[in-house]
Every structure is written in structure tokens, then in C-alpha cells.
Amino acid sequence: MFIVNVEGAIYKEGKWLLVKRSEQEEHGAGGLALVGGQVDQKGNSSDIFERTLIREIDEEVGIEVTNLQYVNSSTFISDTGKPVVDIVFVCDHFFGEPYVKCKEELDEVIWMTTEEILNEEEFPDYLKRNITQAEQLRTLTEQIKVG
Predict the structure, then answer these.
(1) Which CATH number goes with the domain that contains 38?
(2) Radius of gyration over alpha carbons of the chain, in Å?
């Protein structure tokens, strides 16, 4: 049985919101990541990925997002040995200034450009791939709007 996880590539004014995970986290302790979390069983439900992501973003960094669009999905084995399905959405920042709202899960919030993320040698390939794909989708969406 898979754990299902959702993540948001949150964009505002040329930068992406990343979080530094707490050293106490079971998976990815101390690493940089997109904001997100595990989908909980809610019985019969619609838009469970989107609603979970909106809730997780509010719980972790205290902001609201809009325009959620699917970017990609992948699987991996967590640091605790559990199989995970991970679903990434690109989101526009809508309201609020992000801060470490959940100190048990996060140590820091950081805004970085695509170039800064891609040029950081220590960042994992999956984070760079997620940001690259989110940037491509965001750019395409903007071009369609301008038309």
C-alpha cells in the first residue's frame, strides 16, 4: 500500500517557495523541499489532492494559494522504507506572507529563483526536475493568457 503525498511548487514574483524540513522529520530531515504532505483518508471525497495541498500549505506556512495545476507524479521509497506516490502541483501565491507555522515539521522558509535552484549542486535532482517542469507549465499558462 502506498502513502500518497502532494506538494506545491508555489510561485510569486519570479521566485519559488521552498522549506527546510525539521531535523525531527521522518523523511528528508534537514533537506529543502516543496511545501506539502500526506493525503489522509476522508471517506468519499472529491478533489482530495487539491484540498489536501491547500490545507497542508496553510498548516505549514500559513498562506493561501490559487490556480493549482498538475505538474507530475512519481514514486519513491521514503527514508522509513515506505512506498510513496508523490503528486506535484504548480500554485500561484494568493495571500499571506509565508512563515514557519509548524515548527515540528519546518525550520525555515526560503524564496529562490529557478536559476538559483537549478545551479545549487547540493539540491536533489527530483527537486530540480519538479521546479523545471513547474516553470515550463507556468510559462505556458502565462503565454496562453497573454494570447
Answers:
(1) 3.90.79.10
(2) 15
